[in-house]
């Protein structure tokens, strides 16, 4: 008998059924059961009776999903309120940008109009000088008249 040999009774191992694991997708490797889940749509109010926003969320992957969900129902109310304030601030910034662009256009138009009026006034002054010169010439010629004492 060999000194270091060991013999155990053989057990029959039943093969496990092969189940395919879901594939990892995306840069962060989010798991999804369905390749293209339909996005769900939920509506929430921002506190103002006139303002309603629609938020789209999809089941499954995403960075927020990995850290405990991304729907408003699962988040703390202070987080939801902060998000809404940030969104309304972003909207206000976009409106301010539009207003600034409009104001800049109005200033540009006003300056162009002032320049145009200035050029028009200069042209009228030039014409008035010419007219004055010709009127003086006619007046001189008129003064020479009257030799016959009429």
Question: Would you spell out the secondary-structure blueprint of this structure?
Answer:
Elements: E1 24-25, E2 30-31, E3 40-45, E4 52-57, H1 63-66, H2 77-143
Antiparallel strand pairs: 1-2, 3-4
Helix content: 40-55%
The count of helical stretches stands at 2
Number of strands: 4
Biggest sheet, spatial arrangement of strands: 1-2
Compressed to H and E, one letter per element, the order equals EEEEHH
Instruction: Round the Cα radius of gyration to an integer and report it.
Output: 44 Å
Low-confidence stretches: none
Summing up helix and strand content along with how strands pair, one would put the structural category as mainly alpha
Q: Percent of residues in beta strands?
A: 5-15%
What about the largest sheet?
2 strands, antiparallel
User: How far apart, in Å, are the first and last alpha carbons?
Assistant: 167 Å
Average pLDDT figure: 75
Give the overall shape: rod-shaped
Keywords: Coiled coil
Coiled coil: 93-131
Biased composition (Basic and acidic residues): 1-24
Region (Disordered): 1-78
């Amino acid at each position: 008998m060999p000194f270091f040999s060991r013999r155990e009774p053989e057990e029959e191992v039943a093969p496990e059924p092969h189940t395919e694991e879901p594939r990892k997708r995306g840069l962060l490797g989010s798991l999804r059961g369905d390749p293209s889940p339909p996005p769900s749509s939920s509506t929430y109010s921002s506190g103002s009776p006139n303002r309603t926003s629609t938020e789209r969320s999809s089941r499954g992957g995403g960075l927020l999903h990995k850290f405990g969900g991304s729907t408003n129902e699962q988040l703390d109310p202070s987080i939801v309120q902060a998000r809404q304030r940030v969104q309304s601030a972003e909207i206000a910034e976009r409106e301010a940008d539009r207003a600034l662009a409009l104001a800049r256009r109005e200033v540009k138009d006003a300056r162009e109009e002032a320049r145009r009026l200035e050029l028009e006034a200069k042209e009228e002054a030039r014409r008035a000088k010419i007219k004055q010169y010709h009127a003086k010439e006619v007046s001189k010629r008129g003064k020479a008249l009257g030799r016959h004492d009429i």
